[in-house]
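ingest -> validate -> predict -> emit
validate: passed (alphabet ok, no gaps, 161 aa)
predict: started
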Amino acid sequence: MELDRFDRQLLNLVQEDAGRTSEQLAEQVALSPSAIQRRLRRLREQGVIARDIAVVDPGKVGRTTIFIVSLQVERERPELLAQLRSWLAAQAHIQQVFYVTGEADFVLVISAPDTETYEALMSRIVGEHPNVKRFTTNVAMSVVKRGLTIPVPPDSGGQET
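emit:
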């Protein structure tokens, strides 16, 4: 899908706040509110916008501990990796999963209310997936930045810095 400058502007704006109305967006993009609605619908239908979410303050809902976990597997057999990926994706406490290069095979971002909850989750991973060789855990002391925004360059050839 080819994105024009209006699409790119809209993508940057809705990533900042998906709750903006088409009228509010039209004030920043030189299009009518109805044109904004059509473009956003098309971007959703074509999968460019994967979903609209609310960003919740974890401290206000009791999930104040963030664990960054490096996970190693014994063997990288496709069927074993597929089972593990599916299991990881289904766990509510696991916010993000990255399949990575380097010493670890996966990096996980886990939000849990306490270390007991985290420990129980990791015991389940190891118990249900014998292919997991080892894991290391880092506990986030504070959050400097949190986000999922993907910078969209203003034109198709530009690079965002």
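The first helix runs from residue 5 to 16.
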